Amino acid sequence: MVLNRSIVLFLVLLAPLLTWGFSADRRESYKQIALQHKLATNPTWLRLNHYHANFLGHYSSYLKGNFFISPQGVKDPEAELLATIDGLFSENEKHLQCRYLGRMRWLKTVLPINADDIVKCTERDEWRAKLDAREAYVIFASNDLNNPSSSFGHTFLRLHKPGNNELLDYGVNWAAMTGDDKAALFALKGLTGFYPGSYSMLPYHQKIREYTNMEGRDIWEYKLKLSEDDVAMIVDHLLELDGSYSDYYFLDENCSYQILELLNLVRPEIDLTASFHDAVIPIDTLKVLNDKGFLEDEKLRSSLQAEWRTRYAGLNLDQKKELRDAVKMPRTFKFTEKLSNREKAETLEATMSYIAVQDYRAQRDSKDEKYALAIQRAQLGLITDPVKIKIPTSPLTSQNSMGAYLGYGKEDQQDYYTFKFRRTFHDLVADDRGMSPFFHLEALGIEFRYFTENKNLDLQQLTLLKAISTAPITLMDYPLSWTIDLGTYPKLAPYWDVGVGTSVDLTATMATRYTAFIQIENRSENDRYAGYFGPRNLLMTKWSESFRSVIDVSYLYDVQHGGFIWDNEFAVSLSKNQNEIRFEYLNRKDVPDLKVSLIHYF
Fold it and tell me: What number does CATH give the domain 398-601?
């Protein structure tokens, strides 16, 4: 009897030791529950692995690197789920729980996981506690046509710790790893998926420095309507993506697409990427997030460039001349013109603003120069008003990127109906509210014409890429304006046009801009290529927010036949919301073409 009691006592003491830690039986039960409840097709599991189904219903993920546990994981959600359970709850691979934090967070909500099967991840827990992100913001950096990777704009996330200075927050960015590739090579590789892209986390103040200070781009911030658990899930998923990557495609699988993928994870019932098929434009993703109820609390962070331009625009000619001298000799600068004290103060403030912009661009600190100017400014006293930067229109109010044109016209006495579809993004005559002023960026445009007299439907023009950049010069800056136009006209006859020049704002409010190019054109005519070159002049005017006009005049030398030709174009548009009416007149080689179009942007 005593022996039996001893055995019972021994078994009672031994029982916890026998059940402590990982259990093969429990692991198998987790797998059976996963199969029974078809967790492999659970929307959150699919989002965690970035699976997408093709038209046959077969799943595959674009993720590469070391992300998947199962050899079949990239194309088999069920195999990856079972391999995940095997790995996370195996004594030999328990460290995987600290690697796959997002998967583990989700599994805790769908499986009855025993507390003994959960590993403590001290290092990761300490890092997450230090980050302590509970809110998230989507950030939109305005487009920059002179930066190929950001010609359509850029979006990324900001993770915020309540009570923290927002400059100390972390930005979550997805970008291509391009190395030292520039311009044409970047465009070619970016369009064809030759770059790997991955997420990174950087202090937010570094992103501000990059965009607002160095590149002169405005930043728009929008708080996302996410719970603290949603933000925690995003952070865990970002940590488990470390070491993985995917192919970067400039038009679709780009920065904005990947940010939507992150948000899909916490709203699996809403497929944010389903709104896009052939192209994902950053400004369009903002609108989708807004339409789906994700956005609130819009905030603008103006660039240093915006402050400098505002100060410069408020100076008269004498002040601008003095500013130029002050920048050249800031330590010994003395005013030579007879300016009032207020004008001197405004000139010195604009000078310091300009030097600040240049310092950021050159990554230097002209502290002695700024100190010398600041002393002069302080001696004049408080006699100027705070600079008032004009608040641009919200990008949420901008025109949509796709356009359908329906019109009627007359070409050399022949009546026709015209239909044009433009995939992206913006043209010179369109409403540019919420965008950079006076630029043209069009891709994949196609126009058909039906001539009533001979009842013939023809392809008129195919535009592959048309871009016009018109950054204005000042007495201090001389940016290059440029244009490129690639496509076919007439029908499938290929052409290319390029030009370089300079632009100037004719008014301080940027309501009118003039650009002069040296234009080179190469077109197919009569089964031969014809070359042209000569001056081209653009005069662009915004009469109001909804009324705009463009005059485009070229005087080109005909290399093939000799002599010069006039190439004249005039366009005027009136818009309201996403609709527009446009009148256009074109005369090339004395062939007049007049048309009126109704345009809807969607």
Answer: 2.40.160.40
